[in-house]
Design goal:
single chain; alpha/beta; Immunoglobulin-like; 5-stranded mixed β-sheet; 4-stranded mixed β-sheet; 1 helix; 11 strands; 16% helix; globular; binds copper (II) ion
């Protein structure tokens, strides 16, 4: 009986560590520049995260994002509201990849997120659907 209790306690601890460990994780992608001078980045939206969720691009060079969402009925969108940095995006996502082009013109870190929210539930952003585009020199 004692060992069973210990086993349950141990598995609870392991689950806790797995969960908290996964949440803080950043999946970083440094955009590579192709032969046309375009920085191509692929992003996948899922419930409730973006992969990658930390994207590094160079300033004053065109970026081409290819964004799609995982299959399923949950709607997702991709929003970045940083017009002063040349990034102003608000698109609803589908499983068909969409291509979004922009040229960041200001170094900095900019938030992207999914604004969807169902009734009284937490917004997707609050559940982890957000990330950062870092524009570097
Ligand atoms: Cu969403």
């Amino acid at each position: 009986m004692k060992s069973l209790k210990f086993l349950i306690l141990a598995s609870v601890f392991i689950c806790f560590f797995l969960l908290t460990g996964a949440q803080g994780q950043k999946n970083t992608l440094k955009a590579t520049i192709d032969s046309d001078g375009i920085q191509k980045v692929k992003i996948l939206a899922d419930s409730y995260f973006f992969n990658p969720d930390y994207i590094i691009v160079k300033v004053n060079m065109p970026v081409e994002l290819t964004i799609s969402k995982e299959s399923g009925i949950t709607p997702h969108a991709f929003v970045v509201k940083e017009p002063e940095a040349g990034i102003d995006i608000d698109v609803s996502l589908s499983t068909d990849p969409q291509i979004i082009k922009f040229t960041p013109n200001k170094v900095g870190k900019y938030q992207f997120y999914c604004p969807k929210k169902l009734l009284f539930f937490k917004s997707h952003r609050e559940q982890g659907m957000e990330g950062i585009i870092e524009v570097v020199e």
